[in-house]
Amino acid sequence: MASPRKPLYYPEYLQLDRILDAQYPESAKDGSPAHDEMLFIIVHQTFELWFKQILHELDLVQGIFDNDTVPEKHVGRAVHALRRINEIQRLLIDQLGVLETMTPLDFLDFRDDLVPASGFQSMQFRQIENLLGLDPAHRLKIKGAAYVDVLSEEHARLVRATEHQTSLLDCVQRWLERTPFVSFGDFDFWDAYRAAVESMLARDRMVVETHPNIDAEERSVQLARFDDMAGSFDALFDRDQWEALRDTGKRRFSHRAILAALLINLYRDEPIFQLPFRFLTGLVDIDEGFTAWRQRHALMVHRMIGGRIGTGGTSGHGYLEAAADKHRTFQDLFDLPTFFIPRSALPELPMSVREQLDFRYHEPA
Ligand code: HEM
């Protein structure tokens, strides 16, 4: 017979002894304790706990998508996990406000004690970046060094391992490539879409050409910009051009995956696309969440240390702003609205196709 379970005791269950005994301000060690160092440590520790939860949620989403088939009901769970990550991100951004109650002078009381430690050495943050699909080849390099060079050997190994794991971007791409609706049998959707795009672009160009509030100089600048934007359609319609952009790192998703993402967005009112649409929106939300966090962190760093270099040795807020701009994963989904056309101009799908996209309840015979 199994022995009765010992009643659970809250502090033991949560291992509070370990967590609450994990704050050792450096400044206290040389006999000049800085009051705000406790806040600095606790804010960082709570961040790392939330990073752990984000990794846990990413693991769930990857477990769902890293398969040859993804049942519809599992997509709903993935949407939910992404929403949870997004809520955590909001909290993380808000937490920086708590840290900002420490003034730059208060920070100076203990900052020098921290060198060369820095959030730059957050192993979990690097794992999140890699598991989302940040391309290691396109990371910013600091004085030519790889980003793992600042980590301990053990942490560098664990971070490198996530570079070789299937990333969320990889599995979403494979899932998109399997979308059966990129071609529609006899109905040539892409010809119809292209015709609709051409008439939309001609109308939009006319607006710039005839706008009464734009002078000649501004008009020629705007027309050049417009033509540049219109040119991006060429790559959408030409697989080879698109794949060449992928080689340069300008695009991440394959041509087939981007066409599927476009269709899902354009026809999201069709019931079968609703959940995939929400999932793609969730990816945009979390990419935006990390970028917003990076930008907010860079701003905080600017007001905290001005133009000084970071304790980890980067240029400080300049490096962080560049990373916020460059270290994005799902930029293709952000750029997708370039290719959107109004619902009223969308090619109508033939009835045979629409029937396949519908949800139907069949009465049992
Ligand atoms: C007074 C507050 C803070 C200051 C002055 C600060 C400063 C910096 C600086 C200057 C860097 C660039 C690397 C370096 O040269 O050190 C950096 C990177 C980083 N910090 Fe902070 N930080 C602060 C708070 C935080 C907090 C609360 C977190 C939460 C975990 C954090 C996480 C990170 C991460 C993940 C990076 C790497 C970013 C990347 O490489 O893209 N920092 N920080």
Keywords, please?
365 residues; binds protoporphyrin IX containing FE; 17 helices; mainly alpha
Describe the overall structure.
The structure is a single chain. The protein has 365 residues and is an all-alpha fold. The mean pLDDT is 92. The protein is globular and about 80 Å long. The protein is built from 17 helices and no strands. 63% of the residues lie in helices and 0% in strands. The chain binds protoporphyrin IX containing FE.
Provide a quick synopsis of the model.
The protein is mostly helical and 365 residues long. 63% of the residues lie in helices and 0% in strands.
- Please compute the radius of gyration using only Cα atoms: 25 Å
Bound molecules: protoporphyrin IX containing FE
- Gap between N and C termini, in Å? 51 Å
Number of helices: 17
The count of DSSP E runs of length 2 or more, i.e. the number of strands, is 0
Shape: globular
The residue ranges in which pLDDT falls below 50 over 5 or more consecutive positions are: none
In percent, how much strand structure appears in the residues? under 5%
**Largest sheet features:** none
Helicity level, as a percent range?
A: 55-70%
Q: Strand-and-helix sequence, N→C?
A: HHHHHHHHHHHHHHHHH
Rounded mean pLDDT score: 92
Structural class: mainly alpha
